[in-house]
Amino acid sequence: MTRFALTLEWNGVPYAGFQRQSHAPSVQQALEEAAFGVTGEDVRVHASGRTDTGVHALAMRAHFDLSRPFDPFRMAGALNAHLLKAGHAIAVLDCREVADDWHARFSCIGRAYEYRIVNRRAPLTLDVGKAWRISRPIDAQAMHDAAQVLVGHHDFTTFRSVHCQSASPVKTLDRLDVRREGERVVIEAAARSFLHHQVRSMVGCLAMVGQGQWSCADLVSALEAKDRCKLGLNAPPDGLYFVKAVYPGE
Amino acid sequence: MTRFALTLEWNGVPYAGFQRQSHAPSVQQALEEAAFGVTGEDVRVHASGRTDTGVHALAMRAHFDLSRPFDPFRMAGALNAHLLKAGHAIAVLDCREVADDWHARFSCIGRAYEYRIVNRRAPLTLDVGKAWRISRPIDAQAMHDAAQVLVGHHDFTTFRSVHCQSASPVKTLDRLDVRREGERVVIEAAARSFLHHQVRSMVGCLAMVGQGQWSCADLVSALEAKDRCKLGLNAPPDGLYFVKAVYPGE
């Protein structure tokens, strides 16, 4: 058996997320079909994180097994050729052979997301589907200051989708930084793992702070309530990018 | 009469350039239809530069006249609402009233373009139509060094489309900078004005230098030949962005 680790980029717009769905195209299905096209083997692709419909990836990690050896460099090129031919917006940025016990999901010890807001009155043109446009002026510094309330070890029930399958709502958020770059506001989040919708839920509430609709105290109340009904706003998937997965020894 | 100056952003993919065409959608037509929708007047929109099919704009300047006054802030919002409703990928970033002798094209004393290359083997996903992917490694420093040959006052016949309507092929190129940002190579070009296809032609030849197919001497020979047949390569429109128009007193 040979295990291949992939680094993937995709445009989330055409997909119902990473995970295979019965009635909608998924990144997993596209990759498994490409792998079958290349190798003739039915493989199962595992990713470091699931993503929702419309969420993008700049460097998702994944793996799959093959019964026989295959040059990893040729594998990347062949998978890309199959993906491109099938009209997919998915690219294999890197492919390498890894040890049999390396697992894209279970070996992963850190994950990072980036959320992109365009803060302007005018509609998006080049960034349609790729950022969240907020018309009202938002205060990125106030958002950054409030974000620090969420950093650390907390029960994130308020910021968790009702569909979340995680055993516990308690997570440790390592970093939540907000910075402005002209009309853009970028939010970076890092943790060992996240709950379903956690980043979008945190971003939605920070956007309320940025627009002056919520104070920092309101954010603290929402967190402490441990109640999904106290969520201010869930940000749309358009602006969310999975940017990094960290593994031991990397 | 009231003259309005616009700052425009658009995604060039759906358009046959700025200028109105009989059989293809254009940015000019979309804007004129939106202005008619807002004001009921048939206006003519003039831009600081024409752009080709597939070329993008981050801050094109334009103007049009109305027979009566209209609040410019409301005008921007109303034009955007009409453009969005019609499914256009065009946004009015700014609208202001200007003097009757201010002309988007004839008053313009400087223009700047940016060209975006993604230098990697993997196909594009999020940047399809928005950058030129070059698979072979390119040397951005060699491209920047060679680019300096083109800066200054030259006969740019080699770098001019056969369809160019400019009276003279002699232009002064003020700046042509090439820099690498990770897998991206960005080229910035500034001049009072450019010939048709000039930026794409210069970028195409610099890409040959970057891949080691051309030396700096080859670029000099191409320039000095003043012969379109000596052009190495015309870069695709995908990576080209009109980024700035400069006016006296700004």
Walk me through this protein's architecture.
Chain A has about 250 residues and is an alpha+beta fold. Chain A folds into two domains: about 1-100, Alpha-Beta Plaits; about 115-240, Alpha-Beta Plaits (2-Layer Sandwich). The first copy, chain A, has five helices and ten strands. In chain A, strands 1, 2, 3, 4, 5, 6, 7, 8, 9 and 10 form a ten-stranded mixed beta sheet that branches. In chain A, strand 2 (about 45) and strand 3 (about 55-65) form a beta hairpin. The longest helix of chain A has 14 residues, at about 70-85. The interface of A and B includes residues 10, 56, 91, 121 and 130 of A.
Short description:
Chain A is of the alpha+beta class and 250 residues long.
Give the tags.
homodimer; 250 residues; alpha+beta; Alpha-Beta Plaits; globular
Radius of gyration of chain A: 19 Å
Tell me which oligomeric state these chains represent: homodimer
Low-confidence parts of chain A, pLDDT < 50 over ≥5 residues?
none
SSE series of chain A: EHEEHEEEHEEEHHE
Helix content range of chain A: 10-25%
CATH superfamily of the largest domain in chain A: Pseudouridine synthase I, catalytic domain, C-terminal subdomain
Shape of chain A: globular
Alpha-carbon distance between the termini of chain A?
Answer: 23 Å
User: Structural class of chain A, please?
Assistant: alpha+beta
